[in-house]
């Protein structure tokens, strides 16, 4: 019972911190860069150069945004192709794409096509993965899933952001390791002697005890 209480507590606490950090990022911003979903409505390939299998050069693309706040708005984008199939995103009319945009004073100032929109297939794969994990492992699978989600968030929103803000890397990384160890160990073993022993062993390994 204790392990379940700990999981719920950590999940609620981390969710609160996530919402707080998101609110802090949005507060007072007059300019921001974000990603929006769009549909390609016209393509001009007159600037492309065909010297091999993969063309390169500027591709002029018009997109219409489909996100709720920007639905129906249209933007012209110069889609630079480098002749590298692994990083280029050539577009055709009707393609669903993800566009990185710069918004200033609630207006879209510029945009760049990042990739084709694979949200549907990624969602299907995620649902299938979660279903198989929970169906096979039961409660252990649920705990592993929660630990995975929290770990990804802590690494991305705490560690990466802290390093980009210039915080002391050794102390920040040590603190993140301790936090991740606590979440993973106690979510699996619970608040038991075995869990405490494993956590103290991690601290000893880091030289914090």
Q: How far apart are the termini?
A: 29 Å
CATH topology of the largest domain: OB fold (Dihydrolipoamide Acetyltransferase, E2P)
| Proportion of residues in β-strands | 15-25%
Biggest β-sheet, characterized?
Answer: 5 strands, antiparallel
Number of alpha- plus pi-helical segments: 5
Strand order of the largest sheet: 3-2-1-4-5
CATH class (first level) name of the largest domain: Mainly Beta
Structural class: alpha+beta
Which H/E pattern describes the elements?
HEEEEEHHHH
**Radius of gyration using CA atoms only:** 23 Å
Q: Can you tell me the number of structural domains?
A: 2
Under the CATH scheme, the architecture of the largest domain is Beta Barrel
Average pLDDT taken over every residue: 82
Helix content: 40-55%
The number of strands is 5
Q: Enumerate the spans where pLDDT stays under 50 for 5 or more consecutive residues.
A: none
Question: What keyword list fits this structure?
Answer:
209 residues, alpha+beta, OB fold (Dihydrolipoamide Acetyltransferase, E2P), five-stranded antiparallel beta sheet, elongated
Describe the structure.
This protein is an alpha+beta fold. The chain has 2 domains: 87 residues, OB fold (Dihydrolipoamide Acetyltransferase, E2P) (Beta Barrel), CATH 2.40.50; 87 residues, no CATH class. Helix content is 50%, strand content 25%. The chain contains 5 helices and 5 strands, in the order αβββββαααα. The radius of gyration is 23 Å and the shape is elongated.
């Amino acid at each position: 019972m204790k392990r379940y209480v700990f999981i719920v507590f950590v999940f609620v606490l981390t969710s609160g911190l996530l919402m707080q950090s998101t609110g802090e990022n949005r507060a007072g911003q007059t300019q921001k860069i974000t990603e929006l979903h769009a549909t390609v409505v016209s393509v001009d390939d007159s600037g492309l150069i065909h010297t091999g299998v993969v063309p390169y050069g500027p591709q002029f693309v018009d997109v219409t945004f489909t996100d709720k706040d920007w639905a129906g708005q249209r933007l012209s984008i110069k889609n630079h192709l480098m002749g590298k199939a692994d990083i280029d995103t050539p577009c055709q009319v009707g393609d669903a794409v993800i566009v990185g945009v710069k918004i200033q004073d609630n207006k879209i100032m510029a945009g760049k096509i990042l990739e084709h929109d694979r949200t549907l297939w990624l969602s299907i794969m995620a649902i299938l993965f979660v279903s198989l994990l929970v169906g096979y492992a039961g409660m252990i699978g649920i705990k592993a899933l929660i630990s995975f989600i929290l770990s990804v968030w802590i690494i991305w929103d705490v560690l990466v952001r802290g390093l980009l803000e210039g915080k002391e890397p050794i102390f920040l990384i040590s603190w993140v390791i301790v936090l991740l160890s606590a979440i993973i160990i106690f979510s699996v073993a619970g608040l038991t002697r075995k869990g405490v022993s494993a956590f103290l062993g991690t601290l000893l390994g880091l030289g914090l005890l």
